[in-house]
Amino acid sequence: MATRAGLLRRYFSTSKFSSQITAAANAAPNAKTEPVPSTTIFISGLCKRTTSERLHEKASNFGEVVHARVVLDRFSGFSEGYGFVKYTTIAQAEQGIKGLDGQFLDGWVVFAEFARSRTPPYSSSRENNTRQDEMD
Q: Which of 28, 114, 130, 135 has a CA 20 to 30 Å removed from the CA of 97?
């Protein structure tokens, strides 16, 4: 009975806010999209002792590497456990993914996939109001 009342309330509601909630609820918030193929691949599962040179050496077995970078912790100087490899072509990047995904590197199993673009940082409403004030 409670669901019927909720449906009736939603049906007869004229609030814009409720329609936005319904639309947001219907959208899949955790739906993962496939990364767009690019020349850069993301490597995860790296050992803390893995260096950029070692990653470059291993990745160059599957194509011409422009550069390879292991992301390091600022304080310890050790690997954060992931890195990026940039190939010259998308076809070589695909070969790199096929060759590196699930393989051992410095004793650890690594995973490879196309790198995703960064999402823009969250901007608060306060920042937006400040920008609007500056424009006026």
A: 28
Q: How far apart are CA 75 and CA 82, in angstroms?
A: 16
Q: How far is CA 95 from CA 12, 41, 47, in A?
A: 56, 11, 22
CA distances from 42 to 31, 82, 127 (A): 20, 7, 32
CB within 8 Å of 68: residues ≥ 6 apart: 52, 55, 56, 59, 83, 84, 85, 86
CA distance 72 to 110: 16
Bridge partners (DSSP) of residue 104 are 109
Query: Is the CB of residue 32 less than 8 Å from the CB of residue 108?
Result: no
pLDDT at 74: 93
- Answer whether 82's CB lies under 8 Å from 42's CB: yes
Give buried/exposed letters for 96-111 (b at 16+ CB in 10 A, else e): bbeebeeeebeeeebe
